[in-house]
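Title: Prediction job returns without error message
Component: structure pipeline
Severity: low
Priority: P3
Assignee: unassigned

Description:
Job completed but the reporter wants confirmation the result is attached to the right record. Sequence as submitted:
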Amino acid sequence: MKQGWRWYGDADAITLKEIRQAGVTDVVAALYERKPGEVWPVKEIKARAKKVKDAGMVWSVVESVPVHEEIKKRTGNYRQYIENYKVTLRNLAKCGIKTVCYNFMPVLDWTRSNLAYALPHGSTCLEYNAHELAGFHMFYLKRPGAEKEYDAKTKARASRLWKKLSAAEKKRVADSVLCGLPGTVDDLTPEEFLAQLKTYEGIDDRRLRENMYAFLNEITPVLEETGVNMCIHPDDPPHPIFGLPRILSNAKDIAEMYRRCPSKHIGLTLCTGSLGGDPQNDAVAIMKRFGSRVYFCHFRNLEYTDDKVFHEAQCHLCGNTDMPRLFEEFLKEEKRRGEKIVVRPDHGRLLEIDKGRKCYCGYSYGGRLIGLAELRGLEIGLKYARKGL
C-alpha cells in the first residue's frame, strides 16, 4: 500500500513535517479554501503540491472536489457548476493528480451524534447513536413530518432517551450533527439546516440516483481524456437520515452505479468505516467483487454497543470488519494490477498527546499515527505469512 494521510492545508493542526515523520508517502488533500462549484486554478494546485513535495511527499489524492448541491438537485446553475467541475478535473490532471475522492450525500457529509465519546482508558472518538439522532430530528430540530420516518418502537425509544438527556447533552447532539467540515460543509444553525432540507423535498431516492448518474456520465469524457479516476465515498451513515435519501450505501448501489456509468474511471473509495455503519455490509465481499475499480481506501473499524449504536474502534484492525481478510484481498488486487493503492487511516482517537491541539474531529495525530502503524504491521505480517502477496 501507499501510506496516505489526510491533510487540511495550512489551517491543519498537524504539520507536514509531523506527517512525513509518520512514514507517510502520499498526502490526501484539497483546496479547502475553495467553495463547492468554484474552479480550482492551476496556480493554486501547483502551490499546494509544491508545499507537499518540499516536505518529502507527493499530493496524489484529492479529498474532495465537492459536488455542488445544485448539481445533486439539478436545479439553478447546475450546468455551469458541472462545467466548472470539468475545468477543475483538467487542471488537476495538468498537475499530475489523477485520483479524486468525492461523495453525493445531500446537505451533510458524515454524521455523528457525539464527537467526543469517552472510551474506558480516557481517549475519545466519534459515536453514532441512531436513537439520539431520531430524538434530535423529532424534538429538537422539529422538522415537519419527522415522526413519519420512524417506526413505533424507534419513536418510543428515542422519546424516552431524549427526555433523559440534559440540556448540555442535547446541545452536544445538535452540535455534532451541525458541525461542518473544511471545504465541504459549513457549520449550520438549526434554521439553516431546516431550510436546506426543505430544498430536497420532492427529490426521492430514484431521482437523486438519476441525478448522480447524469453528472458522472457528463464528466466521463473529461475522465477519459485526462485519465482521472473518480472514486465515490460511500454514504455515512449508509441509510437515509433527516428525510434525505442515501444512494451509495451497499454492494447493490455500487453495482447499479457501475452498470449505469460503465467507464473504468468511475470507481470507488473503499471506506470500511462508512460501509460498516450497516452491519449487513460485507466489506470483504465488496473488495472481492469491485476491487478492480477501487482507487483509494479509508481503513478503520467500528465497535457496536447496540444494533443502531456504534463508535470508532480502539484498534483499526479490530471490530465489525474483518480487516485481515479484507487486507489480504486488497493486496491481491494490488498484485493483480501491478501497482500500489493509497490507503489512509481514518478517524483516529483523540489521545492525551493531542488534547489542547485544535484537531478536526476524527483527525488527530496520535490516533491516526497508531492506526497507520497497525495497518503497516498488518501488511508486513500478511506478506510474510502469504509469500505470494
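Comment from assignee: result matches the submitted record. The two ends are 12 Å apart (CA to CA).
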